[in-house]
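USER:
I would value a second opinion on how I read folds in C-alpha coordinate form. Give me a protein, with the fold worked out from its sequence. Write it directly below this note and I will take it from there.

ASSISTANT:
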Amino acid sequence: MRFLFLLLITSCITFSSYGQGIMVGGRAGVNFGTMTHPTLNLTPDVGIEAGIIFEAATSRIFSLQPEVNLVLHRTMTGGEKINMTYVDVPILFKFSTGNKWRLFANVGPTVSLLLNVDGNAAYTPFGVAASEANADLNWYDYYRERNIGLTAGLGFAVDNFLLEGRYMLGGSNLSAVEDITITTSRFNMTAAYILVF
Protein backbone atom coordinates (compact mmCIF):
# COMPACT_ATOMS: atom_id res chain seq x y z
CA MET A 1 0.00 0.00 0.00
CA ARG A 2 2.84 2.41 0.79
CA PHE A 3 4.27 1.73 -2.68
CA LEU A 4 0.98 2.74 -4.34
CA PHE A 5 0.65 6.05 -2.54
CA LEU A 6 4.32 6.91 -2.96
CA LEU A 7 3.92 6.38 -6.70
CA LEU A 8 0.83 8.59 -6.77
CA ILE A 9 2.33 11.43 -4.73
CA THR A 10 5.59 11.43 -6.72
CA SER A 11 3.69 11.68 -10.00
CA CYS A 12 1.54 14.57 -8.78
CA ILE A 13 4.49 16.56 -7.41
CA THR A 14 6.61 16.05 -10.53
CA PHE A 15 3.98 17.28 -12.97
CA SER A 16 2.42 19.99 -10.81
CA SER A 17 5.84 21.62 -10.50
CA TYR A 18 5.66 22.78 -14.12
CA GLY A 19 1.99 22.12 -14.99
CA GLN A 20 -0.46 24.59 -16.54
CA GLY A 21 -3.43 23.43 -14.53
CA ILE A 22 -4.33 21.09 -11.68
CA MET A 23 -7.65 19.23 -11.65
CA VAL A 24 -9.22 17.08 -8.95
CA GLY A 25 -12.42 15.11 -9.31
CA GLY A 26 -14.40 11.99 -8.63
CA ARG A 27 -15.39 9.14 -10.93
CA ALA A 28 -17.82 6.23 -10.67
CA GLY A 29 -19.29 3.59 -12.92
CA VAL A 30 -19.69 -0.06 -13.80
CA ASN A 31 -17.22 -2.66 -15.04
CA PHE A 32 -17.33 -6.02 -16.75
CA GLY A 33 -14.51 -8.21 -15.48
CA THR A 34 -13.26 -11.70 -16.16
CA MET A 35 -10.34 -14.01 -15.43
CA THR A 36 -8.42 -16.44 -17.60
CA HIS A 37 -7.84 -19.98 -16.38
CA PRO A 38 -6.22 -22.94 -18.17
CA THR A 39 -9.15 -25.32 -17.55
CA LEU A 40 -12.16 -23.60 -15.94
CA ASN A 41 -14.82 -21.67 -17.88
CA LEU A 42 -14.87 -18.18 -16.34
CA THR A 43 -17.26 -15.58 -17.76
CA PRO A 44 -17.63 -11.79 -17.22
CA ASP A 45 -19.97 -10.31 -14.64
CA VAL A 46 -20.96 -6.75 -13.70
CA GLY A 47 -19.03 -4.94 -10.96
CA ILE A 48 -18.75 -1.34 -9.75
CA GLU A 49 -15.93 1.11 -9.12
CA ALA A 50 -15.38 4.63 -7.83
CA GLY A 51 -12.39 6.81 -7.16
CA ILE A 52 -10.53 10.11 -7.11
CA ILE A 53 -8.85 11.74 -10.14
CA PHE A 54 -5.76 13.97 -10.00
CA GLU A 55 -4.82 15.59 -13.30
CA ALA A 56 -1.84 17.86 -14.04
CA ALA A 57 -1.79 19.45 -17.49
CA THR A 58 1.51 20.43 -19.09
CA SER A 59 -0.22 21.82 -22.21
CA ARG A 60 -3.67 21.96 -23.83
CA ILE A 61 -2.95 18.58 -25.38
CA PHE A 62 -1.04 16.53 -22.81
CA SER A 63 -1.59 15.83 -19.11
CA LEU A 64 -0.77 13.21 -16.50
CA GLN A 65 -3.72 11.65 -14.69
CA PRO A 66 -3.00 9.49 -11.63
CA GLU A 67 -6.01 8.06 -9.80
CA VAL A 68 -6.99 6.03 -6.75
CA ASN A 69 -9.98 3.72 -7.37
CA LEU A 70 -11.85 1.16 -5.31
CA VAL A 71 -12.89 -1.65 -7.67
CA LEU A 72 -15.28 -4.58 -7.22
CA HIS A 73 -14.29 -7.08 -9.93
CA ARG A 74 -16.80 -9.90 -10.42
CA THR A 75 -16.47 -13.09 -12.43
CA MET A 76 -18.84 -16.01 -12.94
CA THR A 77 -18.07 -19.73 -12.97
CA GLY A 78 -20.84 -22.27 -13.42
CA GLY A 79 -23.44 -19.61 -12.56
CA GLU A 80 -21.71 -18.73 -9.27
CA LYS A 81 -20.00 -15.43 -8.43
CA ILE A 82 -16.37 -14.72 -7.54
CA ASN A 83 -15.90 -11.25 -5.99
CA MET A 84 -12.50 -9.51 -5.94
CA THR A 85 -12.02 -6.10 -4.28
CA TYR A 86 -9.04 -4.02 -5.43
CA VAL A 87 -7.46 -0.65 -4.85
CA ASP A 88 -6.32 0.45 -8.34
CA VAL A 89 -3.74 3.18 -8.93
CA PRO A 90 -3.44 3.93 -12.67
CA ILE A 91 -0.89 6.48 -13.88
CA LEU A 92 -2.37 7.62 -17.20
CA PHE A 93 -0.83 9.68 -19.98
CA LYS A 94 -3.75 11.70 -21.38
CA PHE A 95 -4.05 13.34 -24.80
CA SER A 96 -6.94 15.78 -25.41
CA THR A 97 -8.31 17.89 -28.24
CA GLY A 98 -11.08 20.51 -28.39
CA ASN A 99 -12.32 23.35 -26.20
CA LYS A 100 -15.73 23.16 -24.53
CA TRP A 101 -16.35 19.75 -26.13
CA ARG A 102 -13.18 17.69 -25.80
CA LEU A 103 -12.19 14.26 -26.96
CA PHE A 104 -9.43 12.46 -25.10
CA ALA A 105 -7.47 9.22 -25.02
CA ASN A 106 -5.29 7.88 -22.24
CA VAL A 107 -2.93 5.00 -21.63
CA GLY A 108 -0.62 3.96 -18.83
CA PRO A 109 0.36 1.38 -16.21
CA THR A 110 -1.93 0.33 -13.38
CA VAL A 111 -0.92 -1.13 -10.03
CA SER A 112 -3.69 -3.05 -8.23
CA LEU A 113 -3.67 -4.20 -4.62
CA LEU A 114 -6.05 -7.03 -3.73
CA LEU A 115 -8.00 -6.26 -0.54
CA ASN A 116 -10.39 -9.19 -0.49
CA VAL A 117 -11.64 -12.11 -2.56
CA ASP A 118 -14.62 -14.39 -1.89
CA GLY A 119 -17.44 -16.13 -3.67
CA ASN A 120 -20.45 -18.37 -3.46
CA ALA A 121 -19.03 -20.82 -5.99
CA ALA A 122 -18.76 -24.43 -4.94
CA TYR A 123 -15.21 -24.46 -6.31
CA THR A 124 -12.43 -21.92 -6.13
CA PRO A 125 -10.88 -20.89 -9.50
CA PHE A 126 -8.17 -23.43 -8.68
CA GLY A 127 -10.51 -26.43 -8.69
CA VAL A 128 -10.36 -26.86 -4.91
CA ALA A 129 -13.77 -27.66 -3.48
CA ALA A 130 -14.67 -25.47 -0.52
CA SER A 131 -16.00 -28.44 1.43
CA GLU A 132 -12.75 -30.35 0.87
CA ALA A 133 -10.51 -27.49 2.04
CA ASN A 134 -12.45 -26.39 5.11
CA ALA A 135 -15.86 -25.04 6.00
CA ASP A 136 -14.61 -21.43 6.03
CA LEU A 137 -12.41 -21.38 2.96
CA ASN A 138 -10.17 -18.31 2.84
CA TRP A 139 -10.05 -17.52 -0.88
CA TYR A 140 -7.46 -14.80 -0.28
CA ASP A 141 -4.81 -17.42 0.46
CA TYR A 142 -5.00 -18.66 -3.14
CA TYR A 143 -4.20 -15.27 -4.69
CA ARG A 144 -1.24 -12.92 -4.96
CA GLU A 145 -2.05 -9.45 -3.70
CA ARG A 146 -0.37 -7.29 -6.37
CA ASN A 147 -1.37 -7.06 -10.02
CA ILE A 148 0.46 -4.84 -12.53
CA GLY A 149 -1.29 -4.17 -15.81
CA LEU A 150 -1.99 -1.72 -18.61
CA THR A 151 -5.00 0.59 -18.92
CA ALA A 152 -6.19 2.40 -22.06
CA GLY A 153 -9.32 4.44 -22.67
CA LEU A 154 -11.31 6.86 -24.82
CA GLY A 155 -13.80 9.49 -23.76
CA PHE A 156 -15.24 12.95 -24.15
CA ALA A 157 -15.73 15.89 -21.82
CA VAL A 158 -18.19 18.78 -21.71
CA ASP A 159 -17.05 21.54 -19.37
CA ASN A 160 -16.36 19.67 -16.09
CA PHE A 161 -18.21 16.44 -16.91
CA LEU A 162 -16.44 13.41 -18.39
CA LEU A 163 -17.70 10.14 -19.84
CA GLU A 164 -15.17 7.42 -20.57
CA GLY A 165 -14.69 3.78 -21.55
CA ARG A 166 -11.55 1.88 -20.54
CA TYR A 167 -9.96 -1.52 -20.87
CA MET A 168 -7.58 -2.79 -18.20
CA LEU A 169 -5.41 -5.82 -18.96
CA GLY A 170 -3.73 -7.41 -15.97
CA GLY A 171 -0.19 -8.59 -16.62
CA SER A 172 0.54 -10.49 -13.41
CA ASN A 173 -0.15 -14.09 -12.51
CA LEU A 174 -2.61 -13.85 -9.61
CA SER A 175 -2.38 -17.50 -8.62
CA ALA A 176 -0.49 -18.36 -5.46
CA VAL A 177 -0.92 -22.01 -6.39
CA GLU A 178 1.98 -23.68 -8.19
CA ASP A 179 1.54 -24.56 -11.88
CA ILE A 180 -1.67 -22.52 -12.27
CA THR A 181 -1.74 -19.17 -14.08
CA ILE A 182 -4.64 -16.75 -13.66
CA THR A 183 -4.87 -13.23 -15.12
CA THR A 184 -7.66 -10.66 -15.12
CA SER A 185 -9.08 -8.15 -17.56
CA ARG A 186 -11.78 -5.55 -17.18
CA PHE A 187 -13.81 -3.13 -19.33
CA ASN A 188 -15.48 -0.20 -17.61
CA MET A 189 -17.76 2.75 -18.32
CA THR A 190 -17.53 5.67 -15.93
CA ALA A 191 -18.72 9.24 -15.46
CA ALA A 192 -16.64 11.89 -13.69
CA TYR A 193 -16.83 15.48 -12.47
CA ILE A 194 -13.65 17.54 -12.07
CA LEU A 195 -12.71 20.85 -10.42
CA VAL A 196 -9.98 23.03 -11.94
CA PHE A 197 -7.51 24.87 -9.69
About this structure: The CA atoms of residues 24 and 54 lie 5 Å apart. The helical segments are 2-16, 130-133.
